[in-house]
Amino acid sequence: MADGIARTAAAAELAVQAREAARKSQGYWAGVWKRLRRDPVTIACALILIAMLLAIVFAHLIAPHDPYQGSMLRRLRPVGTPNHLLGTDELGRDMLTRLLYGGRLSWFMGITPVVLAFLIGTLFGVLAGYVGGAVNMLIMRTTDVFYAFPSVLLAIAISGALGAGTINAILSLTLVFIPPVIRVAESVTTGVRGLDFVEAARASGAGPLTIIRVHILGNVLGPIFVYATSLISVSMILASGLSFLGLGVTPPEPEWGLMLNTLRTAIYINPLVAMLPGACIFATSICFNLLSDGLRQAMDVRA
Amino acid sequence: MLFYLIRRCLYAIPIALSVGLVCFMLVHIAPGDPINAIVPADAPQELVEQIRKDYGLDRPLPVQFGIWLAKVSIGDLGTSLATGRSVWSDLSVAIGNTLRLALTAALIGFVLGSVLGALAGSFQGTFIDKIAVGLAVAGVSVPHYWLGMVLVVIFSVQLPWLPAMGAGPGGSADWAWDWEHIQHLILPAVTLSVIPMGIVTRTVRGIVAEILNQEFVQTLRGKGLTGRGVFWHVVKNAAPNTIAVMGLQLGYLMGGSILVETVFSWPGTGLLLNNAIFQRDLPVLQATILVLAMFFVALNLLVDLVQTALDPRIRRG
């Protein structure tokens, strides 16, 4: 009986704590949202990115032409040509259509490596930070080796060795971004591990997995996430850069970097059309950068 | 302090060895047998085996790595499969060209970045600050290979002021500091300078703003120091971290100029690497990446040492 009461009391206590925690975290996210709303630049960037995402996802519905079908008679038409709003490329294919379809691969190749690196890097970084000792040594010294390569060089070296291809380009960029994510994850985890509430959880009998899941991840995912968003811009520039070099997407697939490459000779005939794919990369990358800056400030992360 | 310096130098050795290992493995993660890059596909089997033996490709990987490492450490980087010349003869010329480009770009980027960053940090929240921050974000967000093309369209195609390609008149390889050559350097260097410009602007802005908020600056002002006097104190305190960021940026420029070199056909390491990749000239690929990475390792070491020497507050354990 007494045992039953104690258990109920403990449960009630836990419920109160849970509600408290929920209210607090609600307060945190409400605060983040409140700060974001007052930041017109970040909101504008988010809206532009959402509009772009919708346009490329529904490219098959809104694109006026076939992305692969060209005509030798209509090559390199200027911007504003009737029926071809943004002109045509070096093989007479509609630029607007190809830019819409091209965004799919450019976005996919830019974002996938960051997502993969976020998952893998967090795993190893948290492991290194939480376990410490020899495991930490092994993981962190291995990342040091990859830090000895400038990131562009490493991406090009791995892609160059593996050969051209979308999957190889994604693979090489993922490898490039894992070490910096590990470093951030390790440093925030090490910072959190020694705090009192983790010690308290351990003392009250929580296992390592519970501590990592509830107490560590809850506190470190925010900073790592913000850091990962700042990588998207670099990743998109590099992914398109690999395709620009001929190491990523292969023709006739539309992709912004590859389009920029095949249009290089057109700068003497129709410079404006030749510049369009790069302008798309620039717009996307700058929006992601500003969005990441805004998130960092709103979430009050110092990393 | 001395202990730290020695330890830091010693730590560079395993890093350099691991970098060597990664470069060595690059050839072996390549799909297919590395021998296929050397002999034509229709070569008779005996010849393939003979060449495999000549190149030492029949030995176990650790042995191959040992032999390669021994050769590299005495400066023998192998022979190019495409040209038959020693890799070093092409690579040394290319490194000179890339250094010239990277140092010029660094100079432009660092000077602009420091000035913009210092202005933005001193006048936070003002119009000047917003412009500097905007330029910095644009600098790190722009795909520089595209910026290179835009500059070519403006300054070579529309206004025929500057050449669009190469490193000298008539494709000559010899460099001289005269206008004939320098005009080839301007566009690629400006293109390459936007990234360090953006990053240095952001860094310097942050550092200057933080220093200006510290109490000792208030004290200096209270003692009657103005303008130039405070400026020197800020420079002295901002220098170590700024130099560290600049050092790393120089390394990134050396390794990251491949895209810009391709756009401008600048005959540096990037163009060499690009050609090596598409001709599957693995010794050149391996050697170029190795040399660039070693340069980066050395630069990292140098930055750490200089930063420690400049800033006695950094007590590294």
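The first helix of chain A runs from residue 2 to 37.
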